[in-house]
Target: Helix-turn-helix transcriptional regulator
Amino acid sequence: MNAANTLTNAKELAVWARLAREAQNKTQSEVALAAGVSRAWLIRFEAGAVRAELFRVFDVLAALGYGLTPQPLREPVNR
Model:
C-alpha cells in the first residue's frame, strides 16, 4: 500500500482482506461460507494468486462487513 493507505492494485486488496479477516478473528472457513466461495478460493485470493472475479471479491468484502467507495487518487498510478 502507498503512504496514504490507498489500495491501488489487486494484491494490496488481497492483503488488506486477509488482515481485516484476522483482525476480526474470523477463520478462512467462516468468511468463505459467508461469502459463498470455497475456502481454497479464499486462500488463493488472500495470497494474491487468484485473478479473482470481481463479484466474488465484493462477496468476500461484504462477508467482512466492508464495501468499496471509489475516491480520486492524489496522483495517477502508472502501470
Summary: The mean pLDDT is 85. The two ends are 15 Å apart (CA to CA). Helices lie at 10-23, 28-35, 39-46, 54-63.
